Amino acid sequence: MFTSHPTGPCQVVDLVWCCQDWSFVAIAARYKGYRYPIEVIGHAVWLYHRFALSLRDVEELMLARGVAVTYETIRSWCAKFGPDYAARLRRRRPRPGDKWHLDEVFVKINGTTHYLWRAVDQHGNVLDILVQSRRDAVAAKRFSVSCSRVCDTCRG
Q1: Bigger pLDDT: 116 vs 4
Q2: Are 79 and 146 contained in the same domain?
């Protein structure tokens, strides 16, 4: 379809005109053939991965926004588009500080005392946790070593 334009005839293709960034064209191609728009699919997948909700919780939240979609559809979206969203969320996660320490907290769960070990960085971000029913110093030391391997730039 051609229309008249001040500089001459041009083809009316808004997608190519608006999206000179090729990454957007590639993203739009991945979503092609789906009944729902990119924004709806992206929001459902983002909810699932960002807040660790169940598929049925995401279904209810989407229904509250006026989008009737089943949890099976959300599951298939998360299987296809989820790894990209999860990787982007991991990249945006705050980086751990260069110093960290172990915290020991006594917690009652169902009336019994449990021992919660937390690796906390200098900014107060919890890096990892370990819950034990017995106070085991050897396991806590092993937990500390595993935390130092995970966070190789951090030294406790």
Answers
A1: 116
A2: no
